[in-house]
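Morning, I've got a small favour to ask if you have a moment. Here's the protein in full, and shout if anything looks odd to you:
***
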Amino acid sequence: MESLQDAVDAEAERTGFSGVVHVDRSGVIELSSAYGLADRAHGVPNTVGTMFAIASGSKTMTAMAVMSLVERKAFKLGTTARSLLGEDLPLIADDVTVEHLLAHRSGIGDYLDEDAVDDIGDYVMPVPVHELATTEQFLPVLDGHATVFAAGERFAYNNGGYVVLALLAERATGVGFHELVRTLVCEPAGMDATAFLRSDELPGHAAVGYLSVDGARTNVFHLPVRGNGDGGIYTTAADLSAFWDALFAGRIVSPESLAQMVRPRSEVPEGSMRYGLGLYLSGAHDTVWLDGHDAGASMISLHRPSASLTCTVISNWSDGAWPVLELLDHRLGP
């Protein structure tokens, strides 16, 4: 039978995959390979140490920071958004809580309704992206979206809700959101190569995001210049493995908080999966994961505690990760 390495190499060649594939089991790396270019204009190759934007995979980091603040009694899961927002974002219902926002059950209007976007590469922000570098600067983007349904009624994936969570975290602590993620999540997990980078000043070891499998057009006009609660953190495959190890060892949040996060709150309409608080959950076994898809970024990182298995696929173009993920799913099991 063809080895896993050979199979991934062949699929990367067939699809023009650009990114990193990493598989480890019980602390042993079974596969760690980089493909394609981090900077097409200058011919800079991706390496296993390249930092990639992980789009909505960042939501899990936001959820971890929020749960850490719950443990520190900065607020509770039942704290209402209104109690910290004051008069800001008046269309958010008074009974929407931190837990509703974490579980995508808030019912608030979303600035980016992904169901209404045919091609993520066609979406552009409603304000100049260079004006979106801090959490407070997102207020004009978050404002003006009417409630869609009553809080707690059902699951509806919501990008804006996670920026609201970042805003609540800042107002409860007086500390900037990016700093909270660094100190509450990245440092305890040993994620030294993870940060909210600005897209207009990327370091040489960070991948540029591209809108197609080839060509030089990047995503810099499509996304906030610096990510926030709903997306945009940069990381490496190795750091994501460190994240899973730290999470299940109790170094980011307590085992009790993790149990809360992996308790299913919703059945997700698309596919046989469920959602907890900031984590996707398998409907058939104990696999948990985070994923992201945006202009110039696609990724998934999953962990199955019962098998001590972690699998990560990160790509620096919008749809690059999915063919390799399908291959790994077939080779490694559901």
User: Anything to note?
Assistant: The mean pLDDT is 95. Residues 59 and 101 are 11 Å apart (CA to CA). The domain at 4-332 is CATH 3.40.710.10 (Beta-lactamase). The longest strand covers residues 28-35.
